[in-house]
Give the backbone structure.
Amino acid sequence: MMFKTHMAFALVIAYAAYRFFPDANVFVFTFLILIGAAMPDIDNKRSKISQKAKMVSALINSLTKHRGIFHSVFIPLGIYFLLDMILGGYYGMALALGYLSHLMIDAMTPLGVNFLHPITTLRLHGPIETNSFVEKILLAGLVGILFFIGAQMI
Ligand SMILES: [Zn+2]
């Protein structure tokens, strides 16, 4: 999926999840979800996050493959437990939620996602090609939902 589709879906997830974290700062909460949603593609050299963190990306790319361990549930689980232990609060949960939102929609593409990599080889996938017309329809739908949410806030 494209970066902007991940960001749009993450914003919808942030809106849906925020009600369960009434004490969270809405801006920090949303920001962490967006960061979390950008993180998995650190395993793809051409992604937006890899352009921003070239050294980290080069290291990760030398050790893993695209949509391997960085597209499994183990990294967000690790992030959640680590941040929960160190910081407490909602920070780990927000990052992990954003991260999982990325995996959810990547699983709709033909390449798919192996959520339990490397334990299983079970790969969930769908028909939506990255940067295709159908993805653009999905993105337009997400942006429509975000406008609807925004309109309700005014
Ligand atoms: Zn991805």
Observations:
- Residues 33 and 94 are 5 Å apart (CA to CA).
- The radius of gyration is 16 Å.
- The chain has a mean pLDDT of 96.
- Helices lie at 3-18, 26-38, 48-52, 54-63, 74-86, 91-106, 133-153.
